[in-house]
Design a protein that fits this description.
- The complex is a heterodimer of chains A (242) and B (333).
- By secondary structure, chain A is an alpha/beta fold.
- Chain A has 2 domains: 3-80 and 157-240, Rossmann fold, CATH 3.40.50.300; 90-155.
- Chain A has helices at 43-51, 73-79, 96-104, 111-124, 140-152, 170-187, 198-204, 222-226, 229-236; strands at residues 3-14, 17-28, 32-36, 58-63, 66-67, 81-83, 158-162, 190-194, 207-212, 215-220.
- In chain A, the strands form 2 sheets. Chain A has a 6-stranded mixed beta sheet with strand order 6-7-8-3-9-10, sandwiched between helices. Chain A has a 4-stranded antiparallel beta sheet with strand order 2-1-4-5, covered by helices on one side.
- The radius of gyration of chain A is 18 Å and the shape is globular.
- Chain B has 333 residues and is mainly α.
- In chain B, helix 3 (32-57) crosses helix 13 (269-290) and helix 8 (190-200) crosses helix 10.
- Classes of the chains: A alpha/beta (242), B mainly alpha (333).
- Chains A and B meet through helix 2 and helix 3 of A and helix 8 and helix 9 of B.
Chain lengths: 242, 333
């Protein structure tokens, strides 16, 4: 399979601190690709560069064969990359449905078409029954799924998920994992996720990249990565493998 | 259109039709003074709606809307004054030039990320520059003002907005009503959703592919154009223009009060606000005159106090509360 996203020698510094250091990796089309690593490893920085929040200092990012580094977030979304925020950002005054309609309107000019699409997405994310509620009234697990629904409504080819499982109970985590697996299987959606919850990563990812001090220290299938000496030392800890 | 109508609960449709009928027939029973009060109500409902689009929907705070009203009024008045070109044509020129001002302010603010109160300061600054410019331009009458001749032989020329209060009553009504319909239509369209997304969370809107710059520019262009139309109406109603008044921040504040009191980001907010504020101001003038209080500022103090009371009791505006009171809260299927 060809690479949908190519990160090539990407670096980002913040006042001398190297957040991401000449990072290189490919996300193959149709994959569920996880980026893990300790806090401060540069995961969110990487994520923000892909999503267009800021441009890399050097290196390039290519999506579907075209360079996208330096493009603003709205243009990147239009190219087909949807994202969620680590700290959820629903439009609080809008209903759940209207939140998703905003995303659906990206490639649809008629509101009724966008509404129909939003219903489809909401059903997938188990939010259909709550569509009339105000987003501000939702519980955290629902808000996390709304975040995914909204991004999904923009019809992305690649979905970037920034710690969507953080703060969820195991049953809620399993629920999102199941939804994401189904999406990947049925629509061929490529997913790139940053995640701390190893339970979810191990269940979902077909490939894992471990980031440490802005550089990749390991990459491979989940089984390979959890047995990697450097990964155990820097991140997982010995007890995680046992 | 049909959509919009069917979105209103039956009870609301009846009330709305009754209100329209009442307002259309009201001049039969009203004297000149009350008609003039209604002209102001309609004016404030109209320009309030224009400001509401920008602030209530797109979330961009402008404190310089007097600029657009003033520019619209001046352009149409100058065309009439020098070339005899009627306001039905002049309004297009006024709107075009006001929209250019809106585009300049919007471009500066939105392109360079001047946001919130800083954007508001930018809008005030533009209104002030323009005031100073008009104060010093001879062909606009300078600080001494521009006067449109009131010719009693031409009061039948309604097409040139030469007429009595009744003409302005129905014109004002038509404008206020169309602005409400336009806003309702916009709010239900793609751009309306994008505006609210920008208002609620700009970063999240960007991440969903909303062209935030474009959405804000459309808001400022529509808002400035509409406000200019209001300026033309007011200018031909009063027949005079002074830079010190037309571009004053006080004028801008007057424009924003009705939507704030009535309910930001709602269709009926600016209308309800105008129906509260204009009669309140007029009533206070009448009261202070009746009780012989001629201390300067008395009216302003009571006006301010009343606004404070309303805002503290109904922080979301009067309309959302009134809507519940009238049993008009929509039941979503």
């Amino acid at each position: 399979m060809s690479a949908l996203l190519t990160i090539d020698a990407v670096s980002k510094r913040f006042r001398g601190l190297v957040a991401v250091d000449r990072l290189r990796f490919d996300v193959p089309e149709g994959d569920i690709f996880a980026v893990i690593g300790p806090n401060g490893a540069g995961k969110t920085t990487l994520f923000n560069m892909i999503a267009g929040v800021f441009a890399p200092d050097s290196g390039s990012i290519a999506f579907a064969g075209e360079r996208i580094d330096g493009l603003p977030p709205d243009r990147i979304c239009r190219r087909g990359i949807g994202r969620t925020f680590q700290i959820v950002r629903p439009f609080p005054a809008l209903s759940v449905e209207d939140n998703v309609i905003v995303g659906a309107l990206l490639h649809r000019h008629r509101v009724d078409a966008a509404r129909a699409h939003s219903h489809e997405v909401l059903r997938r994310l188990d939010l259909y029954d709550k569509r009339a509620q105000r987003a501000s009234s939702l519980t955290l697990p629902d808000r996390k799924r709304l975040e995914v629904a909204r991004a999904l409504a923009t019809d992305p080819k690649l979905l970037l998920l920034d710690e969507v499982m953080a703060g969820l109970r195991p049953t809620e985590t399993d629920r999102i994992v199941a939804i994401l697996q189904e999406l990947n299987r049925e629509t061929g959606l490529t997913i790139l996720l940053i995640e701390h919850v190893m339970r979810a990563v191990m269940a979902l990812a077909s490939r894992i990249l471990v980031l440490h001090h802005g550089a990749a220290i390991a990459q491979g299938t989940p089984e390979q990565v959890v047995r990697d000496r450097a990964v155990i030392d820097s991140y997982l800890g010995a007890e995680a493998v046992s | 259109m049909r959509d919009m109508w069917s979105a209103i609960p039956v009870r609301g449709r009846v009330m709305l039709l009754a209100l329209i009928a009442l307002l259309l027939a009201a001049p039969l029973a009203l004297d000149r003074y009350f008609i003039s009060v209604f002209v102001l109500i309609f004016y404030f409902a109209f320009v309030g709606q224009a400001w509401n689009i920008m602030m209530g929907f797109a979330g961009q705070l402008s404190l310089g809307h007097a600029l657009y009203a003033g520019v619209g009024g001046y352009v149409a008045a100058l065309l009439w004054f020098y070339f005899g070109i009627g306001p039905w044509v002049g309004v297009f020129a006024g709107v075009a030039i006001a929209a250019v001002f809106g585009a300049m302010i919007g471009w500066l603010g939105f392109r360079f990320g001047i946001e919130g109160v800083y954007f508001a300061l930018l809008t005030i600054a533009f209104a002030e520059f323009t005031r100073i410019a008009f104060d010093n331009m001879a062909f606009t009458g300078g600080a001494g003002g521009l006067f449109l001749l009131y010719d009693p032989h031409r009061t039948h020329e309604w097409w040139n907005l030469r007429g009595g209060p009744l003409l302005f009553y129905y014109l004002g009504f038509a404008l206020a009503a169309s602005a409400a319909v336009l806003t309702a239509w916009l709010a239900r369209s793609r751009i309306g959703y994008q505006w609210i997304a920008v208002r609620e969370d700009q970063e999240a809107a960007l991440s969903l592919g909303v062209d935030v710059f474009r959405a804000k520019m459309i808001a400022v262009l529509i808002s400035s154009s509409m406000t200019a139309v209001g300026g033309v109406l007011l200018t031909f109603y009063y027949n005079n223009l002074f830079p010190g008044q037309a571009f004053d921040i006080g004028r801008s504040i007057e424009i924003i009060l009705a939507p704030i009191i009535g309910g930001l980001g709602t269709i009926f907010g600016p209308i309800v606000g105008a129906f509260i504020l204009t009669p309140l101001g007029e009533g206070l003038i009448a009261l202070t005159a009746k009780f012989g209080i001629d201390v300067p500022g008395t009216k302003a103090v009571f006006y301010g106090l009343t606004l404070m009371v309303i805002i503290s009791l109904r922080p979301d505006g009067v309309w959302p509360w009134l809507k519940r009171l009238l049993g008009l809260t929509e039941t979503k299927s």
